[in-house]
Each structure stands twice: as structure tokens, then as C-alpha cells.
Amino acid sequence: MEMKKRISLELRNRDPAEVRELVVDNCRSADGEVEGLTEEYTGLEVLSMVNVGLSSLAKMPSLPKLRKLEVSDNTISGALDTLKEKCPDLAYLNLSGNKIKELSSIDTLQNLKNLKSLDLYGCEVSTLEDYRDTVFQLLPHLAYLDGFDQDDNEGPDSEGDNDITM
């Protein structure tokens, strides 16, 4: 199913501004971009677009209340700078299983001052030497990387936990 159609089905006759959580996992993005999601979703706090064929977040609409973004298992390789402008309140970002190869790709996440949890598991960047130490230095406000804190203690499980208390 196409992402645009899936998003309209998920509305279930509600006003887009009323939607707090939107899950469109495993549907298809026709052009590798976010489709069908508009700036009308002003109350959206949780967005999951896992395995939808995204190669970019450039067309992400402005979602000022978004706190949790799941975009694992896509082909995103960078251009994450749009997140600061479009999702300034982001606290949890899951990019695992994407095509992020270099630390420079995540440099711009420094601007997301509320970002507490970042998941890059399965991305090529996670195989770099001193990856964990470097990311924690690059993003000093980060509490968890790939589910673990700086001391290698496991973080709270975010599965099904939409009330991010960080």
C-alpha cells in the first residue's frame, strides 16, 4: 500500500490536528520521500515509518510536537539537518538499519537539544572505531545510543512506551 493512502486510512475520519500517534510501517513511499503527511498534523507526537522505502527526510513536514521518530530499515544516508527545523522537540530517533556511513551525517543532530535517545544499530557508521565514544562526545545531551547509556547500561525499552520521560 502506498504511504499516502495508508496515512489517509489511519486518519479514521479524524482531523489531522487530533492525531497524536501515526504508524505507517511497511507501506511504500513512491519516491523515497515522506508522502501524504502534512503540516496539518500539528499534534503529532509519535511517528513510525519503518521499512517504507525512505531515502530522505527532506520533505518531512513541520511537526513541532513530534517527540519520537522511528524510521528504521529504510535507505536514509544523511541530510538529517531538516529535523532541527521540522521536529525541534525530538527526544527519540531510531535510524537503525539505514545507510548512514559517516559521523558527519549525524553532526546536525547536535542542534536537537532535546534528543535523548538515538539508535544507529545496523548502520555502517556503528562499525567505526570509537563509534560510541565519538557519538557521545558529538552529542553531549544524548542519554542513550543504540539502547545503552555511556557506561554501557541498558536504557528503558522504548517498545510500546510512547511516554518518553527523559
UniProtKB/TrEMBL annotation:
GO terms for biological process: chromatin organization; regulation of apoptotic process. Coiled coil: none annotated. GO terms for molecular function: histone binding; phosphatase inhibitor activity. Its main location: cytoplasm. Belongs to the ANP32 family. Multifunctional protein that is involved in the regulation of many processes. This is Acidic leucine-rich nuclear phosphoprotein 32 family member. It comes from Liparis tanakae.
